[in-house]
Amino acid sequence: MKVGVFHGFVAMDGDGPSHGSPFELGAIIASQDPFAADTVAVELVRLDAWKVPYLRLAWEREYIGNIEVVGDKMEDFVEARKSFRIPAGMKRNSITRWLKVGRRYLTAVPYIDPGKCRKCGVCAKSCSPGAISFAPGVIPSVDLSKCIRCYCCNELCPHNAVTLERGLLARMAGRILER
């Protein structure tokens, strides 16, 4: 029998690991079903597992059955969860939930800050769909039509040069709601 175990003694919020902040969660999650373990982990930090694309697909394809939480209840982690900052790529507001427009206008996209970029190419090497082009000595460029919004470039850049910027409509909606 195979069992996957991961700890959340210290968890990461925000756009981790490179741009997140560690916080004490104090959880251990173990399961024979990696999708079930990920579902519990996601919901433990107040996110909706249905909004995580691969978990949604796993539920739709019935790879995930009933999940039984044994031990501490989710409610026992309320204090640790209060300060959890949602990753930029998962933020949504009430207006963007209802808009059925192309994802390029709604989702967070990687932006390479020329002032921070050291032209090392780590972002391009970490980009599995090949959306980031890189040539030595040149600041990499992102082809958003190829970008799958996995944000590995953001997480792995050793110079914090790759940031995430919300799409145009999401930014506009956010400004309207802030008024």
TrEMBL record:
Entry annotated with the keyword Phosphoprotein: no
InterPro entries named in the record: 4Fe4S_Fe-S-bd, 4Fe4S_Fe_S_CS, DUF362, Fe-S_Ferredoxin
Domain of life: Bacteria
SUPFAM superfamilies, alphabetized: 4Fe-4S ferredoxins
Record keyword Iron present: yes
Residues passing through the membrane, by range: none
Keywords: 4Fe-4S, Iron, Iron-sulfur, Metal-binding
UniProt GO MF annotations: 4 iron, 4 sulfur cluster binding; metal ion binding
Chain ranges of the 4Fe-4S ferredoxin-type domain: 108-137, 138-167
Family matches, as PANTHER family: ADENYLYLSULFATE REDUCTASE, BETA SUBUNIT (PTHR43687), FERREDOXIN 3 (PTHR43687:SF2)
Protein known as: 4Fe-4S binding protein
